[in-house]
Write a structure and sequence with these properties.
The chain is of the alpha+beta class. The chain is 26% helix and 17% strand. The longest helix has 16 residues. It comes from Neophaeococcomyces mojaviensis. This is Peroxygenase 1.
C-alpha cells in the first residue's frame, strides 16, 4: 500500500542495493541538521539492521530487520535534477568510505537496476506501540528530500505513503520528531496539508546513549 506510482513520481521500498544511497542521504540530512559528525552508520551496519521486504533475494527478503526505508523517484523528466544522477554527485564532505572489511556478498549496488534510480528523497521508519490505544504505529526516524527536488510535493507524498500504510494495517499513529529551530518544517507539518499536532509543550524527548547508556546498564540495582 505504501508503494505507488504517479505521473510525477514512484515510491518504492528500498532494497539492499540501495544501501549506499540511503547512507548518503542520511549524511546529507545530518549535514542539514548540523550534526554530520555524529553519523556512525556504515553500509554494513545498515544492511545488517534494515529489512528489505521487496528484495528479489529470498534470503535477504526474509532476514530480520529493525526498520524499513521508502524511496521516492521522479518519473517525469521535468521534475528531475539538473545533475544526471544525484546519487553519484557526492561532495568531498559526504563521500562514502568503502570499508576494507566489507562483505562483498552482502550487497552490490551495481548488480541491480534499482540502484541506478534517480532518488529524490527517502523516509526511514519502524513500528512502535501505544499502550493507550493498544495499537501499533509507525515512527518516522528520517524524512529527507534533496534540495533540488523540494517544492514538488515529494515530502508530502512520502508522508501520505506512510499514512496509507497506517490505515491499511489499522495502526493508531504516525509520529516523528522535528528540531525546534526548523521552523519551515514545523509550519509544514502543522498546516492543513499534513495536519500534525505539535506536542512540544506537553512532551519532551528523552534519550540515553553512548557512555551514559553503558553506565545505566552496568549500574547496580538498588
Amino acid at each position: 500500500m505504501a508503494e505507488i506510482e504517479t505521473a510525477s513520481y514512484r515510491i518504492r521500498y528500498a532494497t539492499e542495493h540501495d544501501v549506499p544511497v540511503i547512507l548518503q542521504q542520511i549524511k546529507e540530512l545530518a549535514s542539514y541538521e548540523r550534526a554530520l559528525h555524529e553519523v556512525l552508520a556504515t553500509p554494513e551496519k545498515l544492511f545488517d539492521t534494515l529489512s528489505f521486504p521487496t528484495s528479489s533475494d529470498e534470503k535477504v527478503r526474509n532476514k530480520p530487520g529493525f526498520a524499513k526505508a521508502l524511496l521516492i523517484i521522479p518519473t517525469n523528466s521535468s521534475l528531475s535534477s539538473s545533475t544526471s544522477n544525484p546519487a553519484q554527485q557526492v561532495s568531498a564532505e559526504l563521500e562514502l568510505e568503502t570499508s576494507t572489511n566489507a562483505d562483498p556478498t552482502s550487497f552490490n549496488p551495481s548488480s541491480s537496476d534499482s540502484s541506478k534510480d534517480e532518488v529524490a528523497g527517502f523516509a526511514l521508519f519502524f513500528n512502535n506501540y501505544s499502550t493507550w490505544l493498544a495499537q501499533p504505529g509507525i515512527y518516522l526516524e528520517d524524512l529527507f528530500v534533496r534540495p533540488a527536488y523540494r517544492g514538488k510535493g515529494f515530502g508530502k507524498a512520502l508522508l501520505q505513503a506512510l499514512a496509507r500504510e497506517c490505515v491499511k494495517e489499522n495502526y493508531g499513529r504516525l509520529e516523528w520528531w522535528v528540531l525546534k529551530w526548523n521552523k519551515p518544517s514545523i509550519a509544514f507539518y502543522v498546516s492543513e496539508t499534513i495536519g500534525a499536532s505539535d506536542l512540544g509543550e506537553e512532551w519532551s524527548p528523552m534519550r540515553v546513549t553512548g557512555e551514559a547508556l553503558v553506565k545505566l546498564a552496568e549500574s547496580r540495582a538498588q
